[in-house]
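In keeping with the milestone schedule agreed at the kick-off meeting, the structural modelling team has produced records for the first pair of proteins. Each record is given below as a sequence line and a structure-token line. The laboratory manager (R.T.) confirmed that both were archived under the project's standard naming scheme.
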Amino acid sequence: MIHSKAEHVDCLAGILALSKPISVIVTSPPYNIGLPYKGSDDQKENYLEWMRSIFVACKQALADNGHFFLQVGGIATRPSMPWDVLEQAISANFILQNEIVWVKSISISEKSTDSYGQFKPIPSNRLLTNTHEFIFHLTKTGKEPIDRLSVGVPLKYKSNLKRFGHPKDVRCRGNSWFIPYETIQSKSDRHHHPAVFPVALPEMCIKLSGVPKGSLVLDPFVGTGTTLIACERLGMRGVGFDISAEYCKITEDRLKETI
């Protein structure tokens, strides 16, 4: 049985029509850089004002102890973009509780074969290729408990289990998350959507929030439904909005595949 759904509606209208408080919001808004989204304008003149109106509505819809994970990336020619968007969320009276760096690709030695993850290279004699984005963890109070160990990693030195009294072999992974994309052969494998994130990203955000199974999770910019797929895997009830009927249909089909 599917417990999540995508609605073909403008995100602001959808948020304002919600009748129950949301436990967790996980979303990645359009970056306003002219990407070919279906049915929406990715070059708004009033982009930041529009984003603020979305954040105001999100704050109204979110439970007082809720969690908002805002995933935003910059581009090489506009590196301040994530901070410009974050400023709008803060002006809507959200508090930045945690800043998470989503590492999409990393090279750990001088050998090219020791690079992990995928990225889109840029031709430039002055700019570095961008291989990370941000996940801003926002709350209403800045003091909401989280379940750090739900996304933890095993201890490297097992002697620390006894030395520091760890109840189990896991520690906080910190705020740098290496989440690579799955290898694809063509754009159709990403449902012809120009900006998706791996399912593991919303899964980790939802787990970190520590909310119980069955909680209501929102993605105002649901796209092709990645957040809702994560909700189904974790036993949550997900709802998402998108202005594109085609993306909503893709989301519906993807959810059916999870059964």
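The second protein of the pair:
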Amino acid sequence: MILSERNLIEHIRKNVAASSVNGLIKGIGDDCSVFGKSTTDAWLVSTDMLVDGIHFNRKWHPPRLLGRKSIAVNLSDIAAMGGIPRFFLLSISLPPWLSSEWLFQWLDGVSAMLSEYDCVLIGGDTVTGSELNISVTVLGEQHPAGILYRTGAREGDIVYVSGPLGSSAAGLEILKKTDGDTSSSKNLWEILINAHLDPVPQVRLGQVLCASGCISAMQDISDGLATDLSHICKESGVRAVIYEQRLPSLPVLDEVCETLQLRKLDCLLRGGEDYQLVFCVRRGSEKDVEEYVKKSGDFVVHPVGTIEKGQGVFLEDGKGDRREITFQGYEHLV
């Protein structure tokens, strides 16, 4: 039986996960779980696993950049809730044929990323296994009243994204079609390749949005806008309409899609691992938010849709026609 990751998580959530433990503020159903017994501080925790051949290809992915990405994907979960990352736990299954040089370069990338975000590695585990598996857990903090969840979107809110979409998906396709040999690819394409190999989590912007007081719901874009916005809509009990003409992308994406015969819209909506933020701004606060984030770090955010009554996520084209795209992003199967 093929079971989607989403359905498996929902089964666990209904049948296994605890819902009323002392100190638990938020369990399964968001980018991070939240717990704490203080009225002034709460801990956020999230974990991710990277499996060789599934989440990365060692032939294409330099070990140092993979080390950075191993940390970045968890930092993005903290960013999605407006948190401040603090501590990491790191576990790794090492095949006997993996060279020590590869491992040291990977650790160098891990160390660099921890340093950039002022985080500390506090423990973990190492085992020998038949394949390379990397499991990373992050702990962050935030005032309980300031944490942004997926549950607050309301009718009339405006949907924003924090930056260009589809870059990582296009970078991955370049690597696939060149079998990792990008020496013949155009220099302009490097920005897309780097978006896939060395993503930048939007930690600072997440904190700025949290401080604005105008955001009703937020999460990171790891499985594509079509799926990640669907999570917000499901948890908030609303519908989102995304306007195709407003979706931001880097100019070079058009050239790459034409050259490699990719559908640009698929990259924008379904391409995973952009690690941008998708968030909802309370109705009437759009200009305030745009000015606040620009003043706080010269960030530029992009309005791409609206929240309505109903369920699901819909795409509206330039003619005003709508079609449903609910949970049509990247899907893990187990």
